[in-house]
Automatic annotation (TrEMBL):
<keyword id="KW-0689">Ribosomal protein</keyword>
<dbReference type="InterPro" id="IPR005727">
    <property type="entry name" value="Ribosomal_uL22_bac/chlpt-type"/>
</dbReference>
<keyword id="KW-0699">rRNA-binding</keyword>
<dbReference type="GO" id="GO:0003735">
    <property type="term" value="F:structural constituent of ribosome"/>
</dbReference>
<dbReference type="InterPro" id="IPR001063">
    <property type="entry name" value="Ribosomal_uL22"/>
</dbReference>
<comment type="similarity">
    <text>Belongs to the universal ribosomal protein uL22 family.</text>
</comment>
<comment type="subunit">
    <text>Part of the 50S ribosomal subunit.</text>
</comment>
<protein>
    <recommendedName>
        <fullName>Large ribosomal subunit protein uL22</fullName>
    </recommendedName>
</protein>
<feature type="compositionally biased region" description="Basic and acidic residues">
    <location>
        <begin position="135"/>
        <end position="146"/>
    </location>
</feature>
<feature type="compositionally biased region" description="Basic residues">
    <location>
        <begin position="147"/>
        <end position="163"/>
    </location>
</feature>
<feature type="region of interest" description="Disordered">
    <location>
        <begin position="106"/>
        <end position="171"/>
    </location>
</feature>
<dbReference type="Pfam" id="PF00237">
    <property type="entry name" value="Ribosomal_L22"/>
</dbReference>
<dbReference type="GO" id="GO:0006412">
    <property type="term" value="P:translation"/>
</dbReference>
<comment type="function">
    <text>The globular domain of the protein is located near the polypeptide exit tunnel on the outside of the subunit, while an extended beta-hairpin is found that lines the wall of the exit tunnel in the center of the 70S ribosome.</text>
</comment>
<dbReference type="InterPro" id="IPR036394">
    <property type="entry name" value="Ribosomal_uL22_sf"/>
</dbReference>
<feature type="compositionally biased region" description="Low complexity">
    <location>
        <begin position="109"/>
        <end position="124"/>
    </location>
</feature>
<dbReference type="InterPro" id="IPR047867">
    <property type="entry name" value="Ribosomal_uL22_bac/org-type"/>
</dbReference>
Length: 171
């Protein structure tokens, strides 16, 4: 059974939040909360709150023992970007952005899952933006490699004049 907990518009940048998520992705949820308690980062406290929320969802709604849970997936997305200004030299305004993030945590009951799948699959942190771009890059790389193979196998005349001359000579 998969238990989810979501927190939106956390006022921590997604980059910092992903850094904390990678630090705890392979731990049990209780261990992750304990680990985040001692990390001195701005993203540690909001992330531990979301993990605690997921644990509470499992115990209260589904009557699952918190010790038998494991983190299946942590998704960190970008939320609103607030555009702000602060005073600069010569009366100018200097722009900066206040980024926010959305966090979704999926927990799984480790005792209910089969041992083959639980040992082979590890928790993952997904970023939908990079997964889309990586698929595009993979398709582009395969297309370029096909083009280079075609270029190596086919020989082309150096100019149109030589092509016309070669066709006229054959007649």
């Amino acid at each position: 059974m998969i238990i989810t907990a979501t927190q939106r518009q956390i006022s921590v940048t997604p980059r910092k939040m992903r850094m904390m998520a990678t630090a705890v992705k392979n731990l049990k949820p209780q261990e992750a909360v304990n680990q985040l308690k001692y990390l001195n980062y701005s993203a540690a406290k909001p992330l531990s709150k979301v993990i605690k929320q997921a644990i509470a969802n499992a115990t209260n709604n589904h009557k699952i023992n918190p010790d038998s849970l494991k983190i299946k997936e942590i998704v960190v997305n970008q939320g609103w970007t607030l555009k702000r200004w602060h005073a600069g030299a010569r009366g100018r305004g200097k722009p900066y952005t206040r980024r926010r993030s959305h966090v979704t945590i999926k927990l799984e009951n480790a005792s209910a899952s089969t041992p083959n799948t639980s040992s082979s699959k590890k928790a993952s942190i997904t970023n939908p933006e990079t997964s889309k771009t990586s698929k595009k890059l993979d398709s582009k790389l395969s297309d370029t490699s096909k083009k280079t193979l075609k270029k190596k196998t086919t020989t082309r005349p150096s100019s149109k004049k030589t092509l016309k001359q070669s066709t006229s000579n054959q007649k």
